[in-house]
Amino acid sequence: MSRSGVTVADESLSAFNDLKLGKKHKFIIYTLNDKKTDIVVEKTSNEADYDTFLEEFPENECKYAIYDFEYELGGGEGKRSKIVFFTWSPDTAPIRSKMVYASSKDALRRALNGVATDIQGTDFSEVAYEVVLDKVNRKV
Hints:
This protein has a single domain, classed as Severin (3-Layer(aba) Sandwich), CATH 3.40.20.10.
């Protein structure tokens, strides 16, 4: 349970394990349920296009997301894959929503074992492909 009292729904963990172990999803979008008591799965997708993933981030609403980020290593070393955790909290989202998401993030983040990198986004420039690529490359 988080500081905000929000818990992680079992379906949220199952979807993550399906992505991590079963490669059934390319990304997962998480949101808070209507009562703001549980972090639940809003959407899963097999769509590999990064721009399609970014289209799931609304301009005025907070979300969490997991993305199986594939990239090429320089020097012909082949492809790598890292699981990236996104906290999307746009500047235009309501302050109360941003506070609940910020205080609930740790509950979800701790429950998801195997995440390589965390990305905090308040606008689209902070979640751009090149920014994420740079961050995952630094951890190699």
